[in-house]
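[recover] target loaded
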């Protein structure tokens, strides 16, 4: 079984140019939309036997990705936890790690949340979530955050400084950034370590089996990002409602 794990450098394929060949280096893969990004990652990353835990209010595209993927066909499963309820999430993780230990098995646990929820308009407790995952002494819990509704409203998203520290930001396995909402253009990207990007290029069906995003979309996204970089897009400061979640 092909698992999502950091490859040993001597087996990592590709260039060994002086520019570096670090499989953990941050990279991104651009898709036509946030929908295809989520379907691509959620159908590709979890392997049969892995466990997916996601917030009950997660976007439809995550459900569709899981339906297309391998999860549920093996021993693993996809389960929801009540909205923003970290106690329930902690219990589910603990139970699963105990089962893994008892049965001498190893599986990856993927945790899926949005940083701001579209219907409720509330934020996920990202810092507490990162702290929670950090309390488990395993590298097998991978947090994936959909930043569709925080991009440009909260700078580059709530998983990025100044909302979290650099150290905390590095604990997020994948962040989905979409450009069709506040930025007002089209397209989306998943920001992930390079080894995971290489995996998606080879496995994500919505990336492989369709026409690439248009050059117009790429130019529009570049311009939108310039607006963000040069400070013309004023980030909304965390209101009392948002800060309550932290
Ligand atoms: C949380 C979330 N993720 C992803 C998407 C899909 O993004 P896009 O419109 O770029 O396909 C949406 C759109 O409604 C969304 O609300």
């Amino acid at each position: 079984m092909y698992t999502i794990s950091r490859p040993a450098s001597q087996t990592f394929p590709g260039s060994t140019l002086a520019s570096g060949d670090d499989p953990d280096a941050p990279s991104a893969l651009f898709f036509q939309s946030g929908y295809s990004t989520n379907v691509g990652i959620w159908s590709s990353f979890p392997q049969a036997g892995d466990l997916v835990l996601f917030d009950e209010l997660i976007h439809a595209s995550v459900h569709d990705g899981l339906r297309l993927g391998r999860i549920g066909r093996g021993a693993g499963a996809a389960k929801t936890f009540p909205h923003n309820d970290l106690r329930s999430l902690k219990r589910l993780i603990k139970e699963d790690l105990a089962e893994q230990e008892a049965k001498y098995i190893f599986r990856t646990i993927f945790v899926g949340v949005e940083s701001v929820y579209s219907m409720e308009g509330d934020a996920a407790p990202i810092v507490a979530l990162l702290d929670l995952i950090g309390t488990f002494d395993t590298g097998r819990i991978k947090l994936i955050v959909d930043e569709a509704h925080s991009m440009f409203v909260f700078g580059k998203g709530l998983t990025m400084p100044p909302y979290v520290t650099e150290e905390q930001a590095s604990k997020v396995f994948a962040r989905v950034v979409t450009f069709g909402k506040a930025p007002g253009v089209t397209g989306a990207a998943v920001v992930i370590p390079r080894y995971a990007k290489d995996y998606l290029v080879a496995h994500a069906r919505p990336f492989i089996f369709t026409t690439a995003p248009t050059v117009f979309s790429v130019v529009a996204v570049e311009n939108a990002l310039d607006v963000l970089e040069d400070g013309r897009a004023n980030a909304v400061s965390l209101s009392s409602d948002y800060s309550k979640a932290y």
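[recover] notes: Residues 33-35, 38, 59, 61, 114, 118, 146, 148-149, 178, 180, 188 surround pyridoxal-5'-phosphate (CB under 6 Å).
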